[in-house]
Write a structure and sequence with these properties.
mainly beta; Laminin; two-stranded antiparallel ribbon; EGF-like domain; repeat
Length: about 220
């Protein structure tokens, strides 16, 4: 009897990894290629390609998925902020960021920001900045006679012959005849002023205050 040496069966995966780019599985002479986690087998049955993690359920991100150095990084669209879980997004109140671009008052809705101004200010054409309103331009600042804008507020005053009353807005006529007026004889109060008159037998002089006798005796030589 002649004995022949038994040649052990060679695992095809031990030769060039069975032609597989990553994992080789053998079953007798048959070879099946597989890929590591995160890769997918191509149509040639041997090559593997990296799977874009954002292509599978958006990488678990609520809105925007990006891959940075093989790691998924979630981001949010404008107007949203990433929550502490690093995946979901929440709506951001635009007024909480730079007051929404408004100089004074910011009012936000789901779609836009509306700027407003505090009392005494008016919104400018740019719809964001505010300008101080001249208080005298609105109902004369509440003054009966004269309104003056001083130190960002309205201050009232009166025309000559009138005095400001306790409310600091209204004016009353001053009775000049109760004061030291230059009338010789009679003083008559008028709205905002006064006029002088003379007793019978006298006439008012050119200064409208002095009274002269109508009878002027002639001087004899």
């Amino acid at each position: 009897m002649i004995l022949f040496p038994v040649i052990p069966e060679i695992d095809p995966c031990t030769v060039g990894n069975g032609g597989c780019s990553q994992v080789c599985r053998s079953n007798g002479d048959a070879v099946r290629c597989e890929c590591r986690e995160g890769y997918t087998l191509l149509e040639d049955g041997t090559s593997c390609e990296k799977i874009d993690p954002c292509s599978v359920e958006n990488g678990g991100c609520d809105q925007i998925c990006r891959v940075v150095e093989d790691v998924v990084s979630c981001e949010c669209r404008e107007g949203y902020a990433l929550k502490s879980d690093g995946r979901t997004c929440k709506k951001v109140d635009p007024c909480s960021i730079g007051n929404g671009g408004c100089e004074q008052i910011c009012l936000s809705s789901d779609v836009s920001v509306v700027c407003g101004c505090r009392e005494g200010y008016t919104l400018q054409k740019d719809r964001t900045t505010c300008k101080k309103v001249d208080p005298c331009s609105v109902l004369n600042g509440g003054c009966e006679h004269v309104c003056t804008w001083i130190h960002d507020s309205a201050q009232c005053s009166c025309h000559p012959g009138y005095a400001l009353v306790k409310d600091l807005k209204s004016c009353r006529d001053v009775d000049e005849c109760e004061e030291n007026v230059p009338c010789d004889h009679i003083c008559r109060n008028t709205p905002g002023s006064y006029e002088c008159a003379c007793k019978s037998g006298y006439e008012l002089g050119a200064d409208k205050a002095t009274c002269y006798s109508e009878y002027q005796p002639s001087l004899c030589a």
